[in-house]
Amino acid sequence: MAFEGLSDKLQGVFKKLKGNGILTEENINEAMREIKLALLEADVNFKIVKEFVNSVKEKSLGEEVHASLNPAQQVIKIVNDELTALMGGTNSKLTYSPRGFTIYLMVGLQGTGKTTTCGKLAAHLKKNGKKPMLCACDVYRPAAIDQLEIVGKMVDTPVFTMRDSQDPEKIALAAAKEAELKGYDVLIVDTAGRLQIDEELMDELVRLKGAIKPHEILLVVDALTGQDAVNAAEGFNNALGIDGVIMTKLDGDSRGGAALSVKKVTGRPIKFVGMGEKMDALEPFHPDRMASRILGMGDMLSLIETAQANYDEEQAKKLEKKFKTNDFTLEDFLEQLDQLRNMGGLGKVLGMMPGMGKVKDEDIEEGEKEFIQFEAIIFSMTPEERRNPSVLNASRRKRIAAGSGQPVSKINQLIKRYEEVNKMMKHLSGGRMSKKASRMFKGMGL
């Protein structure tokens, strides 16, 4: 999980601070030493770590404690604010050309996931009302054009190619002309990469930039490469002048040093992060929300936004009515498990919930496995049993166990879980939460 190692260490530091009761300069110095080590272990640039720790220490010793916070909480707030500032402060959105037709030039080294990211960006733009076209300008790597065409099909987006040309400028100019002619409002240009930054690569990209005049140049880097990703970002920015960074594979980076360093080193914001292999697993990067996740405070805004994107308003109203009239069935329960899967699975949802940052990967895997077992059990029931679980006597449960390949104890566990969800949702329907929040959580099956 993203930032797992750093998150665990920082939360350990704050636990010690809270245990001290009254904070002294000695307490703070000890905490700063541990924070410094945690950041260095997370592969954050040494100079950045030094500046970060000095800033936190200065503010921790110098600020008056906020009326609603104890001293330890004040230090946590300062660290949260500094982490947010380090990663860019606010979400940096894509910008669009005022003339109505926008070109994004995608650049990066080989192996960063650039071509796949082109498709993910197209899917994101389509979801936000844009009509994108992809353009294949990597004329060197074997099968690069084929790969982009496969990606284009996956996100139902056309791909412009000129297989008989070895001239990226010519291809990109022709693609821009055709895209505008056919009514597309965004052109995403996939370019060649190299194993390392070299003069030939940069010369080609500079010429391409001059020919098509992209509205934004987006650099794709691999979070797992740590400071190598930061160095690549600095090199591309110095030679080409990038507008933003898309960081792939952040979900697999337990350290997070690249995400914490790239804005400070380059002055360019992270605009998106890749959080999975699926084509919809490209998320806008919110520094404040990411800082909250690192410190174990959750990310409820992203959780609610994810729920909003994946639930149907009418379906949620129907579900709310079912809870109120005691008509929530195992079929509805199964539907909510599917809804949770559509939101990215148990791990993603738990990672955004306050206090859940330390959930182990093996526990998440066990939870996902349990979902599959529950599905098998429900599919082994008759329609009557799904609609009315109260008929599930011992003989019926034994038959379902044989049909699903699960023990009777697992069936009993499913029924217990179903009853707990039913009870909780009736409680929410009673007005103890706002209607909007209640529908959000019902749409998530929580």
Percentage of residues in strands: 5-15%
Give the strand line-up of the largest sheet: 3-2-4-1-5-6-7-8
Net shape: flat
The major beta sheet can be summarized as:
8 strands, mixed
**H/E element sequence:** HHHHEHEHEHEHEHEHEEHHHHHHHHHH
Number of helices: 20
Mean pLDDT score: 81
Overall strand count: 8
Radius of gyration: 25 Å
What percent of residues adopt helix (DSSP H or I)?
55-70%
What structural class is derived from the secondary structure elements?
alpha/beta
| Measured distance between first and last alpha carbons | 22 Å
Low-confidence stretches: 431-446
What can you tell me about this protein's structure?
This protein is α/β, with parallel strands linked by helices and 446 residues long. The chain is built from 20 helices and eight strands. Strands 3-2-4-1-5-6-7-8 form an eight-stranded mixed beta sheet, sandwiched between helices. 41% of the residues are buried. The model is unreliable at 431-446 (pLDDT under 50).
Summarize it.
The protein has 446 residues and is an alpha/beta fold. It has helices at residues 4-20, 25-41, 46-62, 71-86, 114-127, 144-154, 168-181, 199-212, 227-240, 257-266, 287-294, 300-310, 313-324, 330-342, 346-351, 361-379, 383-387, 394-404, 408-432, 435-444; strands spanning 102-107, 132-137, 159-160, 186-191, 216-222, 244-248, 270-274, 282-284.
Note the main attributes of this structure:
446 residues, eight-stranded mixed beta sheet, 59% helix, 9% strand, disordered C terminus
